């Protein structure tokens, strides 16, 4: 089992706690991540849904469908993007790497949607 981790949005309305083995620490350069963040990439990681819970006063984030089978979760108060989930995957919940209270030692090893990456930043690892 992995370490207990916690995190949340900028204002603290949306908070989460996760235990279990984290996985798929990666960058994403898809159009949705770029527009959502206003940046060339977003960083993500997954936790097992079993052992993941929303703990803040706002409960779960507001969900917005970005792909036909994928949703992004954000805080309705401060607008922070904190999570993602796929409709067909009840096993995992994704969180933004920088929403973690402590992201020490977590380094993205892969980059999704490399074809959409900006040419002025180096590509990270392998393509997914």
Give a written overview of the molecule.
The two termini are 25 Å apart. Helix content is 5%, strand content 40%. It has one domain (5-99): Metal Binding Protein, Guanine Nucleotide Exchange Factor, Chain A. It is built from one helix and eleven strands, in the order βββαββββββββ. It has 128 residues and is mainly β. The longest helix has 7 residues, at 31-37. Strands 6-7-8-9-4-3-10-11 form an eight-stranded mixed β-sheet. The radius of gyration is 14 Å and the shape is globular. The mean pLDDT is 92.
**Which overall shape is indicated by the principal axes computed on the Cα atoms?**
globular
CATH topology: Metal Binding Protein, Guanine Nucleotide Exchange Factor, Chain A
Largest sheet: 8 strands, mixed
Which sequence of strands runs across the widest sheet? 6-7-8-9-4-3-10-11
Number of domains: 1
Q: Report the mean per-residue pLDDT as an integer.
A: 92
CATH class: Mainly Beta
End-to-end distance? 25 Å
Number of helix segments?
1
Assign the structural class, choosing from mainly alpha, mainly beta, alpha/beta, alpha+beta, or little secondary structure: mainly beta
Order of helices and strands: EEEHEEEEEEEE
What is the strand tally? 11
| Range of strand content | 35-45%
CATH architecture: Beta Complex
Low-confidence stretches: none
Name the helicity range: under 10%
CA gyration radius, whole angstroms: 14 Å
Give a summary of the structure in a few sentences.
It is built from one helix and eleven strands, in the order βββαββββββββ. With 128 residues, the chain is mainly β.
